[in-house]
Design brief:
Family: Belongs to the 2-oxoadipate dioxygenase/decarboxylase family.
Cofactor: Fe(2+)
CATH class: Alpha Beta
Mean pLDDT: 96
Low-confidence stretches: none
Bound molecules: 2-oxoadipic acid, nickel (II) ion
Distance between the termini: 43 Å
Strand order of the largest sheet: 2-3-4-1-5-10-7-6
Order of helices and strands: HHEHEEEHHHEHEEEEEH
Protein name: 2-oxoadipate dioxygenase/decarboxylase
Shape: globular
Keywords: Dioxygenase, Iron, Oxidoreductase
Largest sheet: 8 strands, mixed
Number of strands: 10
EC number: 1.13.11.93
Number of helices: 8
Structural class: alpha+beta
CATH architecture: Roll
CATH topology: 2,3-Dihydroxybiphenyl 1,2-Dioxygenase, domain 1
Length: 275
């Protein structure tokens, strides 16, 4: 699939869409820039359903057209997800984490809700890289449908109302001069009045697994469900990652499934298990 879009254009458009949904990301970004930092993105992440015309295999060609290459797959049994990590064509561009929900593993009612959403997608939309920040490609679901999904999969519920866009950008902590550790950066983020995802601890991973990660709790905004009911829902979050060199002295490039498993929870609408 030929892409007319440069990497710079792709990520500039993706960032604009993301910050419109995620004002906290602009606040954090701008506060660090005001401190004299240059922000480098470690990675961005996308979510999708393995149904209809937006399966991981349908979206991946846009990444490949931009010069990305597959690094390794990941599986999240409990969350019913599979994912791939991708390497950028140039070191100054972010890695990509692309996941999809294994819809077959949901109940029949939840699958029926998702089938109804993906059936509304105009397949022509998938041909353009702009689909990666197209948002919802279907009408808003009802509050009841959203809750049916949330009971089985927070990921499914989130995707049903937020659609395709960057789920998060991630600041590379390695490049920060004033807050070069996760702990110091988290203090800075909290000083802006923002909350951290504590599921699995404030800092997930370690130097032993060559990757430390933290994230905010997703921003929230009012959303109008089908039928007109308005509720405050989680949108997107910001992540922070610090990578360590491996035995050969090369910076680790992959993701860490056990940490990712908890980072997904940054968008949970039901927070009781996220302690
Ligand atoms: C992705 C969660 C995993 C990481 O860096 O391990 C992740 C998501 O919330 O969709 O971002
Ligand atoms: Ni991430």
């Amino acid at each position: 699939m030929p892409s007319e879009m440069s990497l710079e254009q792709f990520f500039a458009r993706l960032w604009d869409d993301y910050t419109a949904m995620t004002p906290q990301a602009s606040r954090i970004h701008d506060a660090l820039v005001a401190d004299g930092e240059t922000i480098v993105n470690d990675h961005v992440a996308f979510r999708t359903f393995d149904r209809g015309p937006i399966r991981l295999a349908d979206l991946e060609p846009h990444l490949l057209a931009l010069g990305y290459t597959r690094l390794e797959p990941y599986d999240f049994e409990a969350k019913k997800l599979r994912a791939w990590g991708y390497l950028p064509p140039r070191d100054d561009q972010p890695r990509v984490f692309l996941s999809e929900l294994k819809c077959d593993e949901l109940s029949a009612p939840a699958q029926a809700i998702i089938d109804d959403l993906v059936a509304q997608i105009d397949p022509a939309r998938i041909a353009s890289p702009e689909v990666m920040w197209a948002g919802r490609l279907w009408e808003a679901p009802s509050w009841e449908a959203y809750n049916t999904l949330a009971e089985e999969s927070e990921y499914a519920a989130w995707l049903s109302i937020i659609g395709l866009r960057a789920n998060h950008f991630t600041i590379s902590v390695n490049q920060l001069r004033h807050t070069p550790t996760l702990a110091s950066l988290l203090e800075k983020v909290e000083s802006l009045g923002l909350s951290i995802n504590t599921s699995g601890g404030r800092i997930k991973g370690s130097s032993e697994v060559l990757l430390e990660q933290s994230s905010t709790l997703a921003d929230r905004m009012p959303f109008t469900f089908a039928g007109g009911r308005v509720e405050e829902i989680p949108t997107c979050y910001y992540e922070f990652a610090r990578r360590y060199p491996d035995a050969e002295g090369r910076l680790y490039q992959g993701f860490v499934a056990a940490s990712a498993d908890r980072i997904f929870e940054s968008t949970d609408v039901r927070r009781e298990h996220a302690v």
